[in-house]
Amino acid sequence: MPIIDVAVPVPLRQTFSYTSEQKLRPGVRVSVPFGRRQLIGVVTASYDDPVDDTESEVKLKAVTEVLDEQPLFDATLQALTQWLATYYHHPIGEVWATVMPTRLRKGGALSDSVPALTLTEAGQAEAQTPTLRGKKQLECIALLAQGPLASEEIKTKFSNVVLKALEEKALTTQTSIRLTEKQDWASFSLQQTPPTASTEQGVAIAAINQQASHFVPFLLDGVTGSGKTEVYLQVIEPVLKQGRQVLILVPEIGLTPQTVGRFERRFGISVGVLHSQMTDLARVKVWQQARRGELGIIIGTRSAIFTPLKRPGMIIVDEEHDESFKQQDGLRYHARDLAVKRAHTENVPLILGSATPSLESLNNALNKRYTHLTLSQRAGGASHTQLKVLDSRDQPLHAGIAQGLISIMRSHLQQGNQVLVFLNRRGFAPAVLCHHCGQTVDCKSCERPFTYHKSQGRLQCHHCGASRRMPEQCSECHSHDLQTSGIGTEQLEQGLGQLFPDIKQVRIDSDAVKGKDKLITRLDEINARKYQLLVGTQILSKGHHFPHVTLVVVLDCDGALFSADFRAAEKLAQLITQLAGRAGRASKPGEMWLQTDNPGHPLLQDLINNGFAHFARQALQERKLGALPPYSSQAIFRAEAGEAGLAANLLQQIRDCYRPSVNAAKGQFIGPLPCLIEKRQGRFRYMLVLQSQQRAALHSWLKHHLQEVEALPLASKVRWSLDIDPVDLS
Ligand SMILES: Nc1ncnc2c1ncn2[C@@H]1O[C@H](COP(=O)(O)OP(=O)(O)OP(=O)(O)O)[C@@H](O)[C@H]1O
Ligand SMILES: [Zn+2]
């Protein structure tokens, strides 16, 4: 009997062998017995009947069910999955589980259509002139009036009672809807005349077009508003014309209807969209259409990098520096790095675009591993935003803003322009403390001050999410004199309301704007000039086009200037540059003011006088001197436990496992030491950094001792993880 190897979703770094009636092709899903459970796995290899191997065959269990006739994944995705398991030192079965849409992971069939519910003629009439009394029934009718809906989706919205009632009244009936649609997208014709490319855009477009038939990585390093998206639009046109598909990755927050709309409007074809807030069914639909070559353009967030493509033609990663491309739990992959790997395997060009490239990508461009394309001018004649520093030392503050800055804001507002005020701290105040003894009100399980949210009248811990009522007195000295300390966006909004009572303002942070739809509505309203003052957190910094903003004010960036994280400077420079990029995008020039108590700080001075490109090159020099990434590779072991000693102890033992291999010439340990956020949800968090200037050496050490680590008795008691190429030390 043939023997197959199966990747099963369990935390073990191996595949498992089973017997099978027939030889199965790798990439096919099977259901197999595993211990007492039945699990869905993917075939990774298959062998002919072993002659003379009856003994081992006897011990093997048989496959219970074969779920696919054809492999779900082509050779490229299979190879990519194997690479993920090797590179991230992650169990292969769990890698497969991450790569697959949930529905397929659970064993759902890949089908052309699914059962659906639709309105009968009587149902249509009811939708026109409602007569029913049941509110839920009417809601359901109204929803179905827009078209048939998959039964499994409607079941998540309405109870069986409601659905049954409608069916019994013959208002609804069962039908099916197709999950795949034949689309002749390659024969599109342009729906808009593209603007004439600027000289720099023209150079970039020509360079990419010339190399469109094979793998070449490009870094499109273009200042904010320089027309990077326009470059994407122009270079994908010939790719689509050849009937080849384009995969575009964007940060979660940048995936708005505006972005998708730009591509749809240009080519007049429907774009497949993939993001984390979709239903399983909607996701699998796009996945399937992409796999069958029915979609020309697929735009998605991080995990869209796993989308199968029938005829891949190009991969684009927009805002490639964005941290949301790195997954922070389970399989901690970096979608940008994976995009490089995938483009290489598929042999298609790759474009990484950003106004503030990551130092990793910039380094690759500077040492010619990537082709460096630059756009130094803003498109359509818009000018660069002027950066300025406002020294707030010894200045009286109103709502946290210095008097000088208030005058500048007033003058922009009086001219009818929009002003964006950035403060990266939501809530009313970041701490509450006792005016008598100075004790702060802390979250017990994180040992950090609670943030006061005035609108809810509650305290919230921004590390673990815990929430409690505002106490009446200090827990230490019982004084009733509790006061808030510091300013958050909620208080800023209130203060600005007093300073500019006649100006309409809107606050954009995750408290005020819950859910994607609301954010999109607010962004549209901003561009329709419903508001003049925009207050918010970093949601406002990401890629949005605000043509009427002429002034950006940044409050309190001082904390980030002195962080223990060596990436803090890079992150802050990116944030400031992206924020500055929101101003002056149209005909009116823009300016940005940074309010700080450290006006002479070298980072701020460099950014202001020389710009991001210069800052980034300086920062690379510093990284080189310190032998930090990208001039070395890192891996972090993290451990967390209810007792600090346990977590640190495990990491010390891990360090001992590696010590024989890691010689000082080739690698270093840092730690074990507490993470930047030392305690969260009652658990103490520690990390051990393993670093080497030779990536291959680092990976070989990791591989050789991981089994030893897993066998440590403490390793099964303490929660731990391994993070390759970490980007976040918190
Ligand atoms: N060659 C051009 N001529 C005229 N207008 C252009 C040209 N290229 C782009 N634009 C316009 O300039 C604006 C900014 O362009 P785009 O959004 O492509 O820039 P971007 O670099 O992707 O921006 P960001 O990274 O800041 O989000 C858009 O309104 C776009 O339509
Ligand atoms: Zn907490």
From TrEMBL:
CDD domains: DEXHc_priA, SF2_C_priA. Zn(2+) 1 binds at C434, C437, C474, C477. The keyword Metal-binding applies. It comes from the Bacteria. Zn(2+) 2 binds at C443, C446, C461, C464. Belongs to the helicase family. PriA subfamily. This is Replication restart protein PriA. It comes from Alteromonas oceani. The lineage of its organism: Bacteria, Pseudomonadati, Pseudomonadota, Gammaproteobacteria, Alteromonadales. The gene is priA.
